[in-house]
Write a structure and sequence with these properties.
284 residues, eight-stranded mixed sheet, 9 helices, globular
Length: 284
């Protein structure tokens, strides 16, 4: 069995994108993904994601060839384009061979997201772009993920990645953010509208239904306005766009640099001053 093929049954991730919640999420992401994918240019771009419809966002970019890959086996009858089954921690591509990579909720399906990011940076050419799309754990989607850990849910297969940790990994791997990370979708992560839910249960009392629906509408609009004005990072969906710097870095030196930073941070502040004084004395 080579790295392109892997036998598996229909996964929980595929159930997410075939569910009503997955369809709603994809519809919300498409308008936000399209402007970012137009920045891609070059010969080859890799799209990693189990959602078939979201890959249409690459139609507007200036790319000659697009490789669509999934981390789970997808039945051939449902394919809109040919798909490869790949392991994100062991990609079957040469070093610096891709001009762009899109991870559409790909990091949430691997056991070691840090190793996956390192592998993606390996195959990404200098100047290439990386686009990461995922769920924000510090949102209502994070609350639903906690629910999915106990009960069967379309989000049960997804392990949400801390954005702060992800930003640190990108900085260590010498990837520079192209723009400010975009947080959006502050509503509840449910496929059914709250108004319809209230209607189904209180349909016998139209006056009470109208009052509750009006209250939901006012609170929702005010919360969304407050989130957009303050730009709080609590949106359920997150988009990160970064570019690999032209200077090449040895992957083995990344861990050494991280250890040096950690040791320096744990050292008391007084020792820093003493070391600096000793250094100046020696120079004199």
């Amino acid at each position: 069995m080579n790295r392109f093929s892997r036998k598996s049954n229909k996964s929980k991730s595929e159930r997410l994108w075939s569910s009503a919640l997955g369809a709603k999420t994809c519809a919300l992401q498409m308008p936000e993904l399209a402007p970012l994918t137009r920045r891609f240019h070059g010969d080859v771009v890799l799209w990693v994601g189990d959602c078939q419809d979201a890959g249409l966002a690459l139609q507007g970019c200036m790319i000659r060839h697009t490789i669509f890959a999934a981390q789970n086996h997808v039945p051939s009858s449902s394919l809109q384009q040919p798909m490869l089954a790949v392991d994100l921690t062991n990609l079957p591509f040469a070093t610096a061979s891709l001009d762009g990579v899109v991870l559409h909720h790909g990091l949430e399906l691997v056991k070691d997201p840090r190793a996956a990011i390192k592998e993606v940076v390996r195959v990404l050419a200098p100047g290439g772009k990386l686009l990461i799309c995922g769920f924000n754990p510090f949102s209502f989607y994070g609350v639903r993920r906690l629910y999915a850990r106990v009960f069967a849910d379309p989000m049960s297969a997804h392990v949400l990645v801390n954005p702060m940790r992800l930003f640190d990994w990108l900085a260590l791997l010498d990837l520079k953010l192209d723009c400010r990370p975009k947080y959006f979708e502050y509503s509840l992560p449910i496929s059914q509208s709250p108004f319809r839910w209230v209607n189904d249960r209180l349909g016998s009392n139209p006056w009470l239904t109208g009052k509750i629906s009006l209250g939901f509408s006012l609170v929702g609009r005010r919360l969304k306005k407050l989130a957009l004005i303050s730009r709080l990072p609590f949106g359920g969906l997150l988009l990160i766009s970064a570019t690999k710097q032209a200077a090449s870095i040895n992957m083995q030196s990344i861990d050494k640099r991280a250890m040096k930073i950690r040791r320096r941070a744990l050292r008391p502040a007084a020792l820093h001053k003493i070391n600096l004084n000793k250094k100046t004395n020696i120079e004199i």
